[in-house]
Amino acid sequence: MTDIVSADWVNDRLGALKLVDVRDAWEYDGLGHLPGAVNVPFETFRTGEDDSDGMLPTEETWAALLSEAGVGGDDEIVAYDDHHGVFAARFLVTAELLGHDPDRLHLLDGDFSAWQRSFGTTSEPTAVEPADYAVDPPDETPLVGPEAVSAAAEDPEAVVVDTREQSEYAAGHIPGAVLLDWRDLVDTESRGLLPRERALELLAAAGIVPEKRIVLYCNTARRISHTYVVLRELGFPEIGFYEGSLTEWEAQGRPLVTESE
Known about the structure:
Layout: E1 3-5, H1 7-11, E2 18-21, H2 25-30, E3 38-39, H3 59-68, E4 77-80, H4 86-97, E5 105-108, H5 112-116, H6 146-153, E6 158-162, H7 166-171, E7 178-179, H8 196-205, E8 213-217, H9 223-233, E9 239-241, H10 245-251
Parallel strand pairs: 1-5, 2-3, 2-4, 4-5, 6-7, 6-8, 8-9
């Protein structure tokens, strides 16, 4: 299961992990990076093509990208960014959906700025030996389509969750969805996940509890990636991941509700 790990945990295992920095190349080169990290910028895997699923890159694109970065199919990966983990979470969820062992996928709690408070960085380029990454998607994934989202909105045992900002939600959201801005689960001081009990209280206040099936969406599946990883970390057993999100929903002419309605 993709989880969240502390900077101390990562520092104790430097050299045994494949560290993936998903910031832009200029940030990786100019601002420094974690020792040994390779750079796989978010822009290189952020959207799919006509024959891909939702916003996911194609299997061929993903395999080529990770192979070039020297990432192997058996590597234990820690991903990070400098935006509270939202872009790194997207990398990890993409890896999980395309078949990387989720038990070997980790999100750095906090981000690059948080790491710098306690540990060193480097501007030295990381030597990369190309790998031969093979994509092997699992038979079952958390992916759900628009029909499943509609059904969940009518199901009292499920909760459809919009992880965007309040203004976006007010402008138009899927009928029956509750609002949970993904950033509400981030501690502004530590830049990482809220303390566990605080996070669970916030979720429960929105009706998001482990006893229910949770279905997540945003606009392009980036923000739900962070919420997905956090909910897994908190022990939520059943999470649906609407990869198409509002991009697909609106393209199909499906209904939206505004806050004024």
